[in-house]
Amino acid sequence: MENCTEIFDVIVVGAGVMGSSTAYQTAKRGKKTLLLEQFDFLHHRGSSHGESRTIRATYTKDFYPKMVLESAKLWEEAEEEAGYKVYFKTSQIDLGSSYDKSLQAIISSCQKNRVPVQVLNHNQVSEEFSGKFQLTEDWIGVVIEHGGVIRPTMAVSMFQMLAMKNGASLRDNMEVVDIKKDPSKDAILVSTRNGQMFWAKKCVVTVGAWMKKLVKEVAGLTLPIQPQEITVYYWKIEQGHEAEFTIESGFPTFSSYGEAHIFGTPSLEFPGLLKILVDGGHPCDPDKRTWSASPDTLSATKEWIQSKFGGLVDSSEPVLTQSCMYSMTPDKDYVIDYLDGEFGKDVVVAGGFSGHGFKMAPIIGRILADLAIDMQAKDVDMKHFNIKRFEGNSEGNHEDFDD
Ligand SMILES: Cc1cc2nc3c(=O)[nH]c(=O)nc-3n(C[C@H](O)[C@H](O)[C@H](O)COP(=O)(O)OP(=O)(O)OC[C@H]3O[C@@H](n4cnc5c(N)ncnc54)[C@H](O)[C@@H]3O)c2cc1C
């Protein structure tokens, strides 16, 4: 196959949700964009496939809610351009003991960001959600209206379609093995395993769980990003109660803080089933996965369902499981920065989304387009995401509670 000798404005490497959203943003700004993916488009071997992701403005760290609110608007703008919906709104409830540090931090970060928040005791939670959640006396519920479900595979496909509609070129089965400066063309040269070469003024690398491997390979830099395998469980709602767990009946997206951080979404993608899982998994090599679940996450989820849903959901065994990957940083904050070194500001990397990136894909795409095209990101304090935060401080922005 002939190599493509044209020089793109931006090459985006990795067509998960972050790369696809970025390609849409750069193409929309009139930049000649190429999106490269190592596997088939919409494959199930990374982090962005599947049927549901939560969007919620409840975060312990107070720089995230503002980003969620901008992202929510950008999801709606993209939906409008595409002509179909991928984002289904409902409320969000965060549950836990009234002393839980995460819940206290969430309440404070909502208040700082002027996100209206209701703090309900166990009886009020039961009333608000018609007896669905059964909490002990010492538990509270923190409720906000900015929750919802995003349909991931549909959303990735939407961004790819919009990128193409705005003039981007998309190529799958193109594993990038090298990224380097090409002084002869005053451009970045991106090479693939099958011998293709592509040039661009700027390159954005969004390769999810492969970030550590690729960045080490091309720049010799070791990013503290650990891939983790995680299992998604679907549980059967008891017969006759299925409709009560839907968005139409006011059922929320939810997170529960305690010994395990559990989260779930209303019944949507598979009628009669609820998605409930533990936020965590086991470390993995993205190219040598076991595709197996961690037994402790299954038992923790069963116990939680038994104690919180009072028999309305069958906790004996999940009826469906799916495997996925997180890319964890030590502080669970993203890494979004220039690669620097010989690349200066010509190569931008974005990864380490630590199991909470999907909802942010539209704003991350906007930020990455800003960084590649305008050399700075508007209205976001990038210090939380810089690579250098781990230098001499392996924990980065770590705080003593979960996100
Ligand atoms: C089970 C599960 C539940 C989650 N729940 C939520 C949630 O409720 N809310 C939320 O906000 N987030 C959630 N997340 C996190 C969210 O899905 C991720 O943060 C997000 O999908 C990361 O996207 P990405 O584009 O960075 O990575 P990926 O989707 O993995 O995309 C990276 C792409 O790069 C490609 N690639 C890798 N190496 C190369 C190479 N050398 N050349 C070319 N291409 C390459 C890969 O094949 C892949 O397609 C969840 C994640 C999982 C797994």
UniProtKB/TrEMBL annotation:
<dbReference type="InterPro" id="IPR036188">
    <property type="entry name" value="FAD/NAD-bd_sf"/>
</dbReference>
<dbReference type="Pfam" id="PF01266">
    <property type="entry name" value="DAO"/>
</dbReference>
<keyword id="KW-0560">Oxidoreductase</keyword>
<feature type="domain" description="FAD dependent oxidoreductase">
    <location>
        <begin position="9"/>
        <end position="371"/>
    </location>
</feature>
<comment type="similarity">
    <text>Belongs to the MSOX/MTOX family.</text>
</comment>
<keyword id="KW-0274">FAD</keyword>
<keyword id="KW-0285">Flavoprotein</keyword>
<protein>
    <submittedName>
        <fullName>Probable sarcosine oxidase</fullName>
    </submittedName>
</protein>
<dbReference type="InterPro" id="IPR006076">
    <property type="entry name" value="FAD-dep_OxRdtase"/>
</dbReference>
<dbReference type="GO" id="GO:0050660">
    <property type="term" value="F:flavin adenine dinucleotide binding"/>
</dbReference>
<dbReference type="InterPro" id="IPR045170">
    <property type="entry name" value="MTOX"/>
</dbReference>
<dbReference type="GO" id="GO:0008115">
    <property type="term" value="F:sarcosine oxidase activity"/>
</dbReference>
